């Protein structure tokens, strides 16, 4: 008859074998999921290399971002990268249509800041935003864009983006109203922070906001909207998709996910976490055909979710992924940015 010591050793040995087997199975399952369902598109390579350096202290090639943009090549088919060193750049930067495939490579959120303190329509939209883009293929990383203009005089835009196939990764946008204008084309915003109070994101573009944090400050009226979407006809491929995002609002604010600016306005929120109570369209949507407005939700969580509202099927949600909604697999790999 084996001793208690022998039994203990044998038991420990057998348990160790079982644990090892379970560990192998778990690792295989995790690896399989990572390579299939949950696999992110990783950086495909250093396709964006620094070409010039912008530094306020004169240690680079330029002391202003605008001067660097003016000196960049026009109609480029390759990315032209700007390293923008730490500092607050007090200028309204404009990317003309001929300046294609420019890339801002900042030093970090809150470290590299492009700053404006103007409002629209007091100034033109191009002269208001910290950054205005007309040149297609623009990319920005690790940069903050801020506008501290007087909200009583109009929109305080941090970004006006009128270009196609543009991408932002690990950036920050701050303003009060109309903070990010996604004007046209296909646009992508990943792992970024957006701060505003009224019509935080607006425009007619087809834009995906992925893994972004949207912070809705308390507006003067106490009522604000995350997205002012302006799709006016079914033939336009426009709409805003928030995928894997978080939405939070200041205490005492009533937050609506959308404010329709067109008869076919489209806003979709998928796999996101709503920290604050949210509602659907602003009440003024009653003046638009309700059957043509589209506000969809898929597998969202958090205390701000309205149970049973706007639920999409998996097949419906699949239409609004990066690959499907903005054809991201065809152009985002060229940006060297990570997306899902």
From TrEMBL:
It comes from the Eukaryota. Pfam families: Pectinesterase. Keywords: Aspartyl esterase, Hydrolase, Membrane, Transmembrane, Transmembrane helix. Residues 52-329 form the Pectinesterase catalytic domain. SUPFAM superfamilies: Pectin lyase-like. The chain crosses the membrane at residues 12-38. InterPro entries: Pectin_lyas_fold (IPR012334), Pectin_lyase_fold/virulence (IPR011050), Pectinesterase_cat (IPR000070). Pathway: Glycan metabolism; pectin degradation; 2-dehydro-3-deoxy-D-gluconate from pectin: step 1/5. The keyword Manganese does not apply. One of its GO terms (molecular function) is pectinesterase activity. One of its GO terms (biological process) is cell wall modification. Signal peptide: none annotated. This is Pectinesterase catalytic domain-containing protein. It comes from Aristolochia fimbriata.
């Amino acid at each position: 008859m084996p001793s208690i010591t022998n039994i203990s050793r044998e038991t420990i040995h057998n348990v160790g074998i079982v644990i090892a087997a379970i560990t192998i199975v778990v690792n295989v399952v995790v690896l399989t999921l990572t390579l299939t369902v949950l696999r992110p598109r990783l950086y495909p390579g250093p396709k964006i290399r620094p070409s010039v350096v912008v530094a306020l202290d004169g240690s680079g090639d330029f002391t202003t971002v605008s001067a660097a943009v003016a000196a960049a090549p026009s109609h480029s088919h390759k990315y032209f990268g700007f390293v923008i060193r730490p500092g607050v750049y007090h200028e309204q930067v404009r990317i003309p249509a001929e300046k294609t495939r420019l890339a801002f490579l900042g030093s970090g959120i809150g470290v590299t800041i492009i700053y404006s303190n103007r409002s629209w329509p007091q100034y033109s939209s191009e002269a208001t935003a910290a950054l205005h883009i007309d040149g297609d293929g623009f990319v920005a990383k690790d940069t903050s864009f801020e506008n501290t203009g007087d909200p009583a005089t109009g929109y305080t835009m941090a970004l006006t983006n009128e270009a196609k196939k543009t991408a932002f990764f690990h950036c920050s946008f701050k303003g009060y109203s109309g903070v990010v204008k996604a004007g046209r084309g296909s646009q992508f915003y990943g792992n970024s922070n957006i701060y505003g109070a009224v019509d935080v994101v607006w425009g007619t573009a087809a834009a995906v906001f992925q893994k972004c944090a949207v912070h809705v400050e308390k507006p003067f009226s106490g009522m604000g909207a995350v997205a002012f979407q302006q799709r006016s006809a079914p033939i336009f491929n426009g709409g805003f998709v928030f995928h894997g995002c978080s939405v939070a609002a200041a205490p005492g604010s009533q937050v609506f996910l959308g404010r329709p600016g067109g008869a076919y306005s489209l806003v979709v929120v998928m796999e996101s976490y709503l920290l604050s109570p949210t509602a659907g369209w602003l009440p003024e949507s009653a003046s638009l055909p309700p059957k043509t407005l589209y506000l969809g939700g898929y597998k969202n969580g958090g205390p701000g979710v309205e149970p049973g509202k706007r639920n999409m099927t998996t097949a419906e949600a699949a239409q609004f992924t990066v690959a499907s909604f903005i054809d991201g697999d065809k152009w985002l790999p060229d940006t060297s940015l990570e997306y899902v």
